[in-house]
């Protein structure tokens, strides 16, 4: 009986000690353009996509490009994705605007509670974004409603 109790206690301690490590991971800050509270909090990344496609992380958003999502003559294609807010609405903007993908690009939005720069208000605002997947058939501005 004592072995069972001790084993259970060790298991509980191991589980509890792992929780702070998971909470400390947070967001991938590799693509944040600033870290100061006074600086603009914008997530931005430029990358090149080939006919093989791929996944690219921009802050709390991942863009997944399917294989052969564009006509063959348009490869390789370089995009800049930017996650910010406009007039209180959070979204992602892609440069250059691209019409009519052959296969939708999946924009996966992860839960995010924090500050983000609002281009219209010209200040950082606190936003709360829920998990969402957006099948983008072209690139321009997509709001995370």
Describe the protein.
The chain has one helix spanning 2-25, and strands spanning 43-49, 54-58, 61-65, 77-86, 89-98, 105-109, 112-118, 123-129, 132-136, 139-143. The chain has a single domain (29-143), classed as Chondroitinase Ac, Chain A, domain 3, CATH 2.60.220. It is flat, with a radius of gyration of 20 Å. The protein is α+β, with helices and mostly antiparallel strands and 145 residues long. 17% of the residues lie in helices and 46% in strands. β4 (77-86) and β5 form a beta hairpin. The strands form three sheets. It has a four-stranded antiparallel β-sheet, with no helix packed on it. The chain has a four-stranded antiparallel β-sheet with strand order 2-3-6-9, with no helix packed on it. The protein has a two-stranded antiparallel ribbon with strand order 7-8. The chain is built from one helix and ten strands, in the order αββββββββββ.
Secondary structure topology:
Layout lengths: L1 H24 L17 E7 L4 E5 L2 E5 L11 E10 L2 E10 L6 E5 L2 E7 L4 E7 L2 E5 L2 E5 L2
Antiparallel strand pairs: 1-4, 2-3, 3-6, 4-5, 5-10, 6-9, 7-8
Distance between the termini: 54 Å
Radius of gyration: 20 Å
Mean pLDDT across the residues is 83
CATH architecture: Sandwich
Instruction: Give the low-confidence spans.
Output: 19-35
**How many structural units, i.e. domains?**
1
Output the helix-strand order. HEEEEEEEEEE
Count of distinct strands: 10
Q: What's the shape?
A: flat
């Amino acid at each position: 009986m004592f072995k069972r109790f001790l084993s259970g206690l060790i298991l509980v301690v191991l589980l509890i000690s792992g929780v702070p490590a998971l909470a400390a991971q947070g967001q991938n800050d590799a693509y944040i353009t600033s870290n100061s509270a006074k600086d603009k909090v914008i997530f931005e990344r430029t990358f090149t996509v080939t006919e093989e496609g791929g996944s690219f992380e921009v802050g709390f958003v991942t863009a997944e490009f399917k294989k052969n999502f564009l006509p063959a003559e348009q490869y390789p294609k370089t995009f800049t994705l930017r996650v910010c807010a406009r007039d209180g609405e959070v979204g992602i903007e892609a440069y250059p605007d691209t019409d009519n993908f052959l296969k939708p690009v999946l924009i996966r939005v992860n839960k995010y509670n924090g500050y983000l720069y609002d281009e219209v208000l010209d200040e950082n605002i606190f936003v709360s974004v829920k998990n969402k997947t957006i099948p983008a058939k072209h690139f321009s501005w997509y709001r995370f409603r």
